[in-house]
Amino acid sequence: MGFFIETLIGGLMAGMLYSLVALGFVLIFKSSGVFNFAQGAMVLFAALAMARFSEWANHALGGDSLLLANLIAFVGAGLAMLFVAWAVERFVLRKLVNQEGATLLMVTLGITYVLEGVGQTIFGSEIYNIDVGMPKEPVMMLESMFEGGILINKEDFIAALIAAVLVGLLTLFFQKTPVGRALRAVADDHQAAQSIGIPLNRIWVIVWLVAGIVALVAGIIWGSKLGVQFSLATVALRALPVVILGGLTSVPGAIVGGLIIGVGEKLSEVYIGPMVGGGIEIWFAYVLALVFLLFRPQGLFGEKIINRV
Amino acid sequence: MLYRENGQFKTTYAADQQIFTIAQDRWFVIGVVAFAALIVPMLADEYMFRAILIPFLILSLAALGVNLLVGFCGQITLGAGAFMAVGAYAAYNFLIRIDGMPLVAALLLGGLTSAGMGILFGIPSLRVRGLYLAVATLAAQFFCDWAFLRIKWFTNDSSSGSVSVSELSMFGWVIDSPAEKYLFCLGFIVLFALIAANLTRATIGRQWMAIRDMDVAAEVIGIRPMYSKLSAFAVSSFFVGVAGALWGFVHLGSWEPAAFSVDRSFQLLFMVIIGGMGSILGSFFGAAFIVILPIFLNQFLPAIGSLVGITISTAAVSHAELIIFGSLIVFFLIVEPHGLARLWAIAKEKLRLWPFPH
Questions:
Q1: Is the distance from CB of A136 to CB of A62 less than 8 angstroms?
Q2: Tens digits of per-residue pLDDT, B9-54?
């Protein structure tokens, strides 16, 4: 029983991490109708920027204060993401207003390549560390209830907490602020939003910036866990079933989807995996999402898709 | 002046419905095929065959298959690489497990197996569409990646999932020199292009296009979405599967599952986008572009670098390749969403009037 709960909690924590990446997808889709395949590349880019800026800042400060160096690096990486957002809007999205979803999807595939190339050219393509002082040691919990207690990674716990806070803030941002409302209007219809005076270009920069910041947070957490390297870009592929399961337009959906996928992956790997030779994590998430899709084509929390002729 | 249909009257239905209604088109295509079959083997050297011509032919066959699904039936797929893998491994198993299995039959059976998988993974398309479907097709990709790596039966119990095919022969003709391999692939691609051209102008192709343009409306006028969508998945996967089998057998010789990773799927999709969605000719343009560009950049960038006195490391070249490749995709989608095939069509339109533009 203790082992089951441990796996379950491990899955929930992993799910929160997926949710963080999935959030970036949802944000951009919700507010610009673009399915942003480049989210993974943005995570990589942000994490690379963070890692290198922190290294450089630490070097410049003489290694006195890690916190200060990290703060400088965070701002620097944020600015880098602002630049990315601006460039994407200025050179790509502005020219593709009112195009079909498929075209926009493929454009973001192109952006993925550019970001991966630029990121590695500027920041290098080695493996870097991000040290933001996250505690690494695991803790035992509930020792009285189960034999041997439950092992929980403190790092995972903090990451999950950060993700939860981020989601709360984003929900407030979307529901309560004028900018959030404008974002939702743009998502519904580019032209109609423009016609009532919403500055499309500025909105897009904002939304890509927000997605960039989310990518940065995800990049820091993933990066401090796994090290910053090229494979970070592939977390996007791990997060895709999460978005699909939760619904492309729903922020809570990204969280719930993430949790379901995280738990499903871990449990299947532990209990079904040995029967078929292991390594089923990756496709199991997709198949799980597919099964959900067959019953709810718009995802768990997505807006109902209505087809008109 | 040269390209003008004046004086070509169609007097029968057959003449009206042929693939190339204009004589110049017909002769041009026949000329290109004849050139490729007769002159190219004499001119090209071994490097040319191995690095450019054979990959180009096989990938254009795969791109053609993807184009049938994405361009003609409007179902976005990100799992084409998986169907290549299914084709390759199925053909391999047919070849080694059944004694005296002819090569061509094995390749076609590989394609058929892939078509079966295509139908299976096409079923979600009946419920979900657009972006959701694109992600659903990724399930096929990851499942196949896993299956060929972990299930030993598929790979004849080889350790890392890598298999190899030693000798290729057809009716006593041993295919071993690059030129022979090239001709073998050329035969396949010409045949399949012809099939594709005929499919797309027949009932089934028209149904696909109706589904692509608006599936609800197509259903209203009596087209069965299930039949049309699944047939598109089946035919497309068949093409892609045969291409995968050729890629493994003829181009690579020995391969492992990584040869058909998700990157391959993206690459095929790019070929279709850059070449032109819903155009058979476009698949060839797209494949040529994607095959030649990296080779060109690899040669060209260090040359430029040494010209200005900087040595560009191989890592920098590969990064620059990524950047240029990505920018070109973005550029194409912005400037010419209909791809290279559209540029070709514009050129032909201009040629009709040239040299008297009024």
A1: no
A2: 888 888 888 888 788 888 888 999 999 888 888 888 888 888 889 9
Residues B9 and B21: their CA atoms lie apart, in Å, by 10
Asked if B268 contacts B62 with a C-beta cutoff of 8 angstroms, the reply is: yes
**A172-208 per-position pLDDT tens digit:** 887 888 888 888 788 777 788 889 888 888 888 888 8
Chain B residues inside the 8 Å CB shell of A94: none
Residues of chain A with pLDDT under 70: 1, 63-64, 132-151, 277-278, 305, 307-309
Contact B83, B61 (CB under 8 A): no
Tell if the CB–CB gap between B216 and A307 is shorter than 8 Å: yes
Which helix (H) or strand (E) segment holds residue A139: the answer is strand A138-141
Q: CB-based contacts of B188: which residues, under 8 Å, 6+ apart?
A: B57, B61, B107, B242, B246
CB B59, CB B264: distance < 8 Å? no
The answer to whether the CB atoms of B150 and A278 lie below 8 A apart is yes
Mean pLDDT of B158-173: 74
Flag if A111 and B150 touch (Cβ within 8 Å).
no
Query: Which residues in chain B have Cβ-Cβ distances shorter than 8 Å to A306?
Result: none
Place of tokens 């944020």: A78
Please give the pLDDT value at position A244: 84
Verify whether the Cβ–Cβ distance B323 to A99 is below 8 Å.
no
- Shortest Cα–Cα distance, A286 to chain B (Å): 5
Residue in chain A lying closest to B134 (CA): A102
Selection from A150, A163, A170, A265 nearest residue A210 by Cα: A170
Name the residue facing A277 among B151, B320, B322 (closest C-beta). B151
Question: Would the CB atoms of B326 and A121 count as touching at under 8 Å?
Answer: no
B105 pLDDT higher than 60: yes
Is residue B118 over pLDDT 90? yes
Question: CB–CB of A107/B137 below 8 Å?
Answer: no
Give the separation between CA B143 and CA B78, rounded to whole angstroms: 13
Q: Specify the pLDDT at position B57.
A: 93
DSSP β-bridge partners for residue B169: B174
Q: What angle do helix axes B54-67 and B178-201 make, rounded to 10 degrees?
A: 20
Backbone phi, psi, residue B33, to 5°: -65, -45
Residue A98, min C-alpha distance to chain B (Å): 12
**For A126, nearest residue in chain B (alpha carbons):** B315
pLDDT at B150 over 90: no
| Neighbouring C-beta atoms of residue B343, cutoff 10 Å | 15
What region, left, alpha or beta, does residue B172 occupy, with left being phi > 0 and alpha being psi -120 to 50 degrees? left
Task: Give the C-alpha separation, A258 to A17, whole Å.
Answer: 8
Q: Can you name the CATH fold of A2-295? A: ABC transporter involved in vitamin B12 uptake, BtuC (1.10.3470)
Mutation target for A interface from B77, B129, B131: give the one with most A CBs within 10 A: B131
Q: What is the DSSP letter of B158?
A: -
